[in-house]
Amino acid sequence: MKTAESKMNKAINVLTSEFAAIRAGRANPALLDRVTVDYYGVPTPVNQVGSVSVPEARTIIIQPWDATILSELERAILKSDIGITPNNDGKVIRLNFPPLTEERRRELVKDVSKKGEAAKVAVRNIRREAIDRFKAQKKNNEITEDDLSSLEEDIQKLTDKFVKEIDKLTDGKEKEILEV
Question: Taking 70 as the threshold, does the pLDDT of residue 77 lie above it?
Fold first, then answer.
């Protein structure tokens, strides 16, 4: 039961990190989490080579601690899939996020719904695996029929709790995207 719960928590964490990477028209430093810079031959995350700040709702500023890597940082952002062109002023890199079009917002909402549905499927698969394990224990006479039905009930309650959590996260992200 605890294994299933921890796996379901991981599914929620994956969904949360995927949602953080979706650009909702607002500047979010989490967008840079997957961007790495070649820092003296070592791929290093952006937040480890400088400070990342959000001074305005649509701007991220990256101020590297070592000014010599500005061009590397700029190159890494251009190569990434965030779709923003960096502005290098010699001291800091600015990322300006344009407002999203209505069509793009709808596409993002569809993407969010797909990711939410995939997380629900993952949670349901974890439930199915747990129930299969319980049935195998019953077959080996490790647990009774009453224990099996009680465990199935408990795992279903746990699944319902996580599905509600996924729905809440998905709805929140959709509202954030559609907010103008």
Answer: yes
Q: Where are the alpha helices (DSSP H) in the chain?
A: 2-20, 70-79, 102-139, 145-178
- For 56-68, b/e burial (b = at least 16 CB within 10 A) is eeeebbbebeeee
Alpha-carbon span 162 to 45, nearest angstrom: 31
The string of pLDDT tens digits covering residues 1-44 is 788 999 999 999 999 888 877 766 677 787 788 888 988 888 88
- Put simply, whether the predicted model's pTM sits higher than 0.85 gets the answer no
The identity of residue 49, as a single letter, is: V
What is the three-class DSSP state of 176? Answer: helix
| Cα separation, 39 vs 27, whole angstroms | 24
**Nearest residue to 147 (alpha-carbon basis) of 156, 155, 139, 138:** 138
**CATH number reported for the structural domain that contains residue 70 in this entry:** 3.30.1360.40
Domain that holds residue 116: 2-20+101-178
Tokens describing residue 36: 């790495």
DSSP class of residue 31 equals G
Spatial separation of the C-alpha atoms in residues 178 and 106, rounded to whole Å:
8
